[in-house]
Design a protein that fits this description.
Elements: H1 12-40, H2 46-64, H3 88-108, H4 122-127, E1 142-146, E2 152-156, H5 159-166, H6 171-182, H7 195-200, H8 205-215, H9 227-230, H10 232-237, H11 242-245, H12 252-255, H13 260-271, H14 306-316, E3 327-330, H15 336-348, E4 355-358, E5 367-368, H16 388-395, H17 398-405, H18 409-422, H19 426-433, E6 449-454, E7 457-465, E8 471-478, H20 483-501, H21 506-513, E9 522-525, E10 531-532, H22 535-548, H23 600-613, H24 616-625, E11 638-641, E12 644-647, E13 653-656
Parallel strand pairs: 3-4
Antiparallel strand pairs: 1-2, 1-5, 6-7, 6-9, 7-8, 9-10, 11-12, 12-13
């Protein structure tokens, strides 16, 4: 509404209007509640709370008049409606609404103790074609909503053309500005990549029609130049193989010979800049009208400061019974000081709730304003010659080799054996041989003992390392556990240890066991991990962080403080594993192998390379599942749907955060 009216969100005029509208809504509801009370009686316990209830109503009325000195019994005095910036007709309606609400309430009481909040309306607001939700500014002029079933939905702000009309721009100027922001969605007249150049490269008119039909909802033009839009017949006619166009990291436009600069120029013309900054005809003084919560597109620089969000909430809060469900958006580069300032200003303005979100801080966020495109790395196939350095890196992660070569395990082992026999590098032979041979730990090995406490239950995790620092075994102990629990944990630790010694990658265990849910679970006393869904979840989060460099599975990165060193109150009566006689199940059979494996640093590097090699489907599934709870209706595992979790089995929604 503010944008259509040509008023900037972060302005005194906007806050005056928002305060008046909120005052009218809540004032009328309390007047209606008092009228209901005249027939049905006041709410339970009204008489016991009458004095305080009426004091609250008088404070609401004082805020409508901006009479700060009239507030009763509150220490932090919120800002009321600033009459200087509020239209007269709104101000009169607001003050009358609260005069009536107080007058009727003093006579009849109120049927409702509370009447209004600003609820989270993100999903339903978008379904109902709202450009913004609640008291939020727009996330971005052009945004992409991630769908729970995969893919994106392009959302374009529909208020921009009307706002430009109210700002007295001509229809031709409006058309140019809108096209600059959202793109022309057509290959016609596009620079470099257009109908003419594509016909010269072997495309047909039917192929180009398919591309034009898909460009309207495209994030980037590269998202439509693929086998799903064009079909296998088209790509094979152009000379590409199934191995190429089935690879999610492969770029058809690059394969056709277009440079990055040419692709970017065409992308701006077709998909737009997603911002009005730099648009033709648009005056600089009108830019604040179109400011959003985040920088718009790749070239946008303007955005609404966090204090602008908070001050808008401060304008509405004095006229609400409850709190405001609104996210204060912070840019990706926001600091801890920015967050502290936001909380302090929220307190100073008397807000009842404050929710912050830093752009990009979650693995999977429902709304995005730009692409997270990464440079694709060239992948080797098993038919291509591989250097010994490349083979050593591939041997560090079997799953990557399978994905890269599209081979079965049997095919992979046959190929590996051939390369082992043909290689003159004895170190390489040992690295490849470890896949099928057990690699014994040295009799005296290093490791660490980690003490933690999960929801009140003390836990000890011990590790054993090879001489190069890679993980070879684990031990798990709990304080005051029963015999059954102790035996099961010991057997589980032995099974994991044997798998590690036979070459099973630690990351495979991590992906399989993190987010396993059973009791005890909850808050964790640990320097980096602050909550876990189970003991197993904590163990593999810790191992992934220590040995794989997986920062995405911990809540706090390394800090100078050293914690859990034996001075906690619960450390007194919890025996460590070294203070009792080892169980028979803890005995390890050791051999005197002299094989070596990549170092811990090499292992972390190989893991990061492997993550880049994940196909898009697996990567999406990994981020979608995240820390998904079980359905509280049928028990089926849920999947993320925006900020909520939903059950694919029974359709139940677990609610939003």
């Amino acid at each position: 509404m503010l944008m259509v009216s040509g008023i900037a969100y972060d302005s005194e005029e906007a806050r005056g209007i928002a305060g008046a509208i909120t005052a009218i809504m809540t004032g009328v509801t309390y007047k209606t509640s008092a009228e209901m009370a005249s027939f049905l009686g006041a709410f339970d316990k009204y008489e016991a709370n009458k004095e305080h209830m009426l004091r609250v109503m008088r404070n609401h009325r004082a805020a409508a008049y901006d009479a700060t000195e009239a507030y009763e019994g509150i220490r932090i005095k919120p800002q009321g409606i600033n009459a200087k910036y509020c239209p007269d007709y709104l101000l009169k309606a607001a003050t009358k609404a609260w005069d009536d609400a107080v007058q009727f309430g003093e006579k009849y009481g109120y049927r409702n103790a509370q009447t209004t909040v600003i609820a989270p309306t993100g999903t339903i607001g978008l379904v109902m074609d709202c450009d913004t939700t609640g008291v939020e500014p727009d996330f971005a002029l052009v945004k992409f909503k991630k769908l729970s079933g995969g893919g994106y939905f392009k959302i374009i702000n529909q208020s921009v053309p009307q706002a430009l009309r109210n700002l007295k721009y001509s229809e031709k100027e409006i058309e140019e500005i809108v096209a600059y922001a959202k793109g022309h969605a057509s290959l016609d007249k596009s620079p470099f990549i257009n109908t003419k150049t594509l016909l010269e490269k072997g495309f047909t008119i039917e192929d180009i029609d398919k591309l034009n039909a898909a460009l309207g909802a495209a994030f980037e033009i590269g998202f439509v130049f693929n086998v799903y839009t064009l079909g296998e017949t088209c790509l094979e006619r152009l000379g590409f193989t199934p191995e190429q166009y089935s690879d999610f990291n492969w770029s058809l436009l690059e394969a056709l010979g277009f440079s990055d600069e040419e692709i970017e120029a065409a992308n701006i013309y077709i998909c737009g800049t997603m911002t009005v900054e730099g648009a033709p005809y648009l005056k600089d003084e009108h830019l604040p009208v179109f400011d959003c919560a985040n920088k718009c597109g790749q070239i946008g620089e303007r955005y609404i400061h966090a204090h602008g969000h908070i001050r808008m909430m401060g304008a509405a809060q004095p006229f609400l019974s409850g709190a405001i469900s609104k996210t204060i958006n912070l840019p990706n580069e926001a600091t801890q000081e920015d967050i502290a300032d936001s909380y302090r200003l929220s307190w100073e303005l008397g807000l009842k709730a404050c929710a912050l979100y830093r752009d990009g801080s979650k693995l999977s966020q429902p709304l995005s304003n730009k692409s997270d495109k990464k440079n694709s790395s060239t992948k080797l196939t098993m038919d291509e010659p591989i250097s010994e350095e490349s083979a050593a890196a591939l041997a560090a992660d079997i799953s990557t080799m399978v994905d890269m070569g599209k081979l079965t395990i049997d095919d992979l082992l046959d190929e590996m054996n051939k390369r082992v026999q043909s290689s003159a590098d004895t170190t390489l032979k040992r690295q490849l041989a470890m896949i099928v041979e057990r690699r014994a730990l040295p009799a005296k090995r290093r490791g660490f003992t980690q003490k933690a406490k999960i929801n009140g239950q003390a836990l000890f995790l011990r590790t054993g390392e090879y001489n190069d620092g890679t993980l070879g075994e684990i031990f798990i102990d709990m304080a005051k556990e029963g015999a059954t629990m102790r035996s099961m944990l010991n057997c589980f630790a032995i099974a994991i240890s044997i798998g590690l010694q036979y070459g099973v990658p630690l990351e495979e265990y991590v992906e399989k066991f993190v987010f396993t849910r059973f009791e005890p679970s909850g808050m964790v006393d640990h320097p980096n991990i602050k909550s876990a869904t189970s003991i197993i979840d904590f163990i593999f989060r810790s191992l992934a962080y220590e040995y794989l460099g997986r920062n995405d599975l911990v809540h706090v990165l390394d800090t100078p403080e050293v914690q859990n060193q034996g001075n906690e109150p619960w450390d007194q009566d919890t025996p460590t594993i070294g203070e009792r006689k080892p169980e028979l199940s803890e005995v390890r059979v050791l051999s005197t192998g002299t094989q070596t494996t990549p170092s811990k640093a090499q292992h972390r590097t190989a893991h990061k390379k492997a993550e880049k090699g994940l196909d898009a489907v697996n990567a999406a599934a990994k981020s979608m599942q995240s820390d998904a709870p079980a359905c509280n209706t049928c028990g089926h595992i849920t999947v993320r749907s925006g900020t909520c979790y939903k059950c694919l089995n029974c359709g139940n929604s677990m609610g939003c955060s």
